[in-house]
Amino acid sequence: MIKSILLSWLTRTDLGNLNAGEGAGNLSDLKLYDNGRKPYVSGQAVRRALFDTIQRNYPEHFHCSPETPCGDVENCWSCDLRGFLATEEGKGGTRRWSPVKSSPALGQIQKDIINDLLTRHSDITKENRESKDMRLAYVQMVENTYKVNLVIDVDNIGRVVEPVIETKGKKQKVTGYQTTIDIGEQERMIRVQALLDGVYHLSGFAKQARALNSLAPEFLFISLKNTYNQRGLNALDLDHDCNMHPERLSIILKEHQMLGDQVCVGWTPGVITNESEIRPVFEQYHVPILSVLEAIEWAKEQVGKKQG
Ligand SMILES: [Zn+2]
After folding, report:
1. For the segment 257-275, what is each residue's pLDDT rounded down to a tens digit?
2. Gap between the Cα atoms of 90 and 64, Å rounded
3. For 140-183, what is each residue's pLDDT tens digit?
4. By CB distance 3.0 to 4.6 Å, which of 105, 124, 133, 241 could disulfide with 41?
5. d(CA 13, ligand 1 centre) in Å
6. For the chain, domain boundaries
């Protein structure tokens, strides 16, 4: 029984600005961490891009917008997968924690930040000006290799468990828990498979409205777990030269093997520097080394198989 799925991936981006802060005036500045030396994209933006990608593929299953949730976990993928906080009483209660957790996309290497000066020309002459209007804007851009982590709480997709509350006089106590919504294994797997496809096709970051850039996986580690845990998040961490740590990876794979969790890797050449050192580590633990699309298809197949 697969209880949770961990997806951890690396993506190289070209020079770009995936998730700028609002900035002041005409400056579109990057979000930075590690004393301003590396860029990141917030976890919220990663989640939004993922759900928007799924919605684009399955518009018929999204019945509301996150701002005004319908609360119908049974039928609405938006409310089920995103979670919600509703002000009105809905079918699935008024609050739901999302079964999909995401880390921010963290730039792994220190790179120079480029300030790009944009000029916007306008043919409309403003009233009090003789000349044509020309506005200036700065956009900070950087290229990097990002790491993103996603954990899917398979068990809680399409399921709502609520406490049973007993009232005696003025006192209330929780006497147990009952499942109030359960879409069943078959429907649950359809949603899990849609999530996996969403990771492969991931697109739609804020700045992509005009600029083209992507955080879709190029190097993908997938773990299908028999328990809910979030271990393995640092398997793909890189040093400043894009080297992966072979000993750390080895220990993570060994523990996955001991727990009986199934692992595979989607490999695109050229993403990490020490490929010849890392490939044998995966081989040592009999981890299938596939392409990214094959890895996603492998996970979808395993998920479907396990649930019978
Ligand atoms: Zn909804």
Report:
1. 999 999 999 999 999 999 9
2. 12
3. 777 789 999 999 999 999 999 988 889 888 888 999 999 999 99
4. 105
5. 33
6. 4-20+34-112+144-306
